[in-house]
Amino acid sequence: MTGLSVLGAWLVAYVFTQAIEVPLYLRITDGRWRVALLASTLTHPIVWFVFPEVCPLSWGYWGMVAAAEAFAVAGEAAWLSFSGVGSSLKWALLVNAASATGGLLLRATFGVP
Questions:
Q1: What's the domain range around 49?
Q2: Residues in CB range of 111: below 8 A, 6 or more apart
Q3: What are the start-end ranges of the H helices in 29-84?
Q4: pLDDT band at 1 (very low <50, low <70, confident <90, very high)
């Protein structure tokens, strides 16, 4: 990760995730900033710091990514549902697909995060 500390790489990934997800969640939640900001704030640190440590090595990188993204979708869907957003699983899946795709493209293109 080109000279970035683990925390620095996480911060880049978190800001990038928020830049993609918050506008989408704002649209879905009729402008409720708290709901939009907290969705990935609740899941992102776990995805970034916990999943690489707890996923078996036999799963490989893509297995870990799949498990982490499934967790993020489930966690954000639960948050959206708790916050009164209808079709929460559908929206969480769509928003996370957008940010995961963007993040993987960023990594493939620039090597970060």
A1: 31-101
A2: 1, 2
A3: 33-45, 51-54, 60-82
A4: very low
Rounded to an integer, what distance in angstroms lies between the CA atom of residue 54 and that of residue 49?
Answer: 9
Q: Which residue has the tokens 């995730």?
A: 17
Q: What is the pLDDT of residue 36?
A: 98
Spatial separation of the C-alpha atoms in residues 77 and 51, rounded to whole Å: 19
Give the integer Cα–Cα distance in Å for 106 and 100.
10
Report the b/e string of 17-52 with b at 16+ CB within 10 A: bbebbbebbeebbeeeeebbebbbbebbeebbeebe
> For residue 113, is the peptide bond before it cis, meaning its omega torsion is within 30 degrees of 0?
yes
Query: Is 39 among the domain residues?
Result: yes
Overall number of domains in the chain: 1
What is the distance between the alpha carbons of residues 6 and 80, in angstroms, rounded to a whole number? 29
Dihedral (Cα; 72, 75, 77, 80), 10-degree rounding: -120
